[in-house]
């Protein structure tokens, strides 16, 4: 009985790990003779990979083996969003040993013995690459972008850890979030909607998805959807690219207002006016903006310098929070640059 509790404690401790660490690439050969490449075969195709570290003679590994196999079946047996794999940590586990273990427990997912290069993989986990290694069984859940959750607390918590990578069990209904981008414009002077570029992407970069194209010219869209996959920390970026309306609503009286602010005679009291005043795009309001605005009004310059647009959103790089089945509103005001009255 004490031995049983000892192994249970070892299992629970082994679940403490580091979340978010980027996984290393590997190429191994499973007991069926098939080559397994982590990124090439799985992650690059958008699959999540679940790795169990075990060894053949490990008592708690044997006790959970059938339940782990059942999880593999629940998640589609490698035919959908997730692939399972097990890697031995014992230098004595050869192909014959691992095959015997698989047959004993009815395991059908890929298994890697020392003959197939398991040591190169398990050695990374043992080295502390993902944090402290406490023993077997341990689990690593690897998202398609390579980020890794090492050591979920139990078999029951595997579902949540796998789902957190964006994977879905076969047959689960996808509940999308409806995102409404509500725009208002300075003094109700709307720019050309066709000059508006609205993109969705992960905060750390990667592919961009053109909302104006996906949503057929409207500013409401579903996320995720067939056209927009689930992203890590998605953000909306907004840019106005029109060039024919630079002087819309802008006149000599705006220069007077701007001069009073610069001379501290009548300083602006709103963030909107401060944003609209920075027509040279240097992040501050100064006499240079007065000169810039005058040149545009007089027609010496047809555009604001430094890629300053005719309209600028009052917020950008806006996080999009997923709320399955719900409808969320994002309110943005497009500020007409140079219009200060």
Describe the structure.
This protein is an alpha+beta fold and 341 residues long. The protein has two domains: 162 residues, 3-Layer(aba) Sandwich (Glutaredoxin), CATH 3.40.30; 160 residues, Dockerin domain (Type 1 dockerin domain, Orthogonal Bundle). The N terminus is likely disordered.
What percent of residues are in strands? 15-25%
Biggest sheet overview: 6 strands, mixed
| Average predicted confidence as pLDDT | 90
Give the full name of the CATH homologous superfamily of the largest domain: Glutaredoxin
Tell me, what's the shape?
A: elongated
Give the CA-CA distance, first to last residue. 81 Å
Amount of helix: 25-40%
CATH class of the largest domain: Alpha Beta
Could you give the order of the helices and strands?
A: HEEEHEHEHEHEEHEEEHEEHHHEEE
Based on secondary structure, the structural category is alpha+beta
How many helices? The count is 10
What is the CATH topology descriptor of the largest domain?
A: Glutaredoxin
Q: C-alpha Rg, in Å?
A: 29 Å
């Amino acid at each position: 009985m004490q031995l049983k509790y000892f192994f249970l404690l070892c299992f629970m401790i082994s679940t403490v790990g580091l979340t978010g660490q980027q996984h290393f690439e590997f190429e191994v050969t499973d007991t069926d003779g098939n080559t397994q490449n982590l990124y090439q075969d799985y992650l690059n195709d958008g699959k999540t990979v679940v790795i169990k570290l075990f060894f053949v003679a490990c008592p708690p590994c044997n006790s959970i083996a059938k339940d782990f196999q059942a999880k593999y079946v629940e998640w589609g047996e490698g035919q959908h969003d997730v692939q399972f794999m097990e890697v031995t940590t014992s230098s004595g586990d050869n192909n014959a040993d691992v095959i015997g273990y698989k047959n004993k427990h009815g395991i059908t997912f890929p298994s890697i013995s020392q003959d197939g290069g398991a040591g190169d993989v398990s050695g990374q986990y043992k080295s502390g690459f993902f944090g402290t290694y406490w023993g077997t069984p341990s689990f690593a859940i690897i998202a398609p972008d390579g980020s890794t959750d090492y050591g979920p607390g139990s078999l029951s918590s595997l579902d949540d850890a796998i789902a957190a990578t964006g994977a879905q069990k076969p047959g689960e209904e996808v509940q999308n979030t409806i995102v409404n981008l509500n725009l208002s414009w300075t003094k109700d002077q709307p720019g050309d909607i066709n000059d508006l570029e609205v993109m969705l992407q992960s905060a750390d970069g990667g592919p961009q998805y053109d909302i104006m194209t996906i949503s057929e010219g409207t500013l409401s869209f579903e996320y995720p959807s067939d056209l927009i996959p689930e992203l890590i920390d998605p953000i909306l970026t907004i840019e106005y690219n029109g060039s024919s309306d630079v002087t819309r609503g802008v006149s000599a009286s705006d220069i007077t207002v701007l001069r009073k602010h610069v001379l501290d005679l009548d300083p602006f009291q709103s963030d909107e006016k401060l944003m609209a005043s920075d027509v040279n795009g240097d992040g501050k309001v100064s006499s240079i903006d007065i000169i810039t605005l005058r040149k545009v009004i007089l027609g010496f310059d047809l555009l604001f310098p430094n890629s300053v647009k005719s309209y600028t959103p009052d917020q950008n790089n806006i996080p999009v929070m997923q709320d399955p089945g719900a409808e969320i509103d994002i309110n943005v005001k497009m500020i007409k640059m140079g219009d200060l009255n």
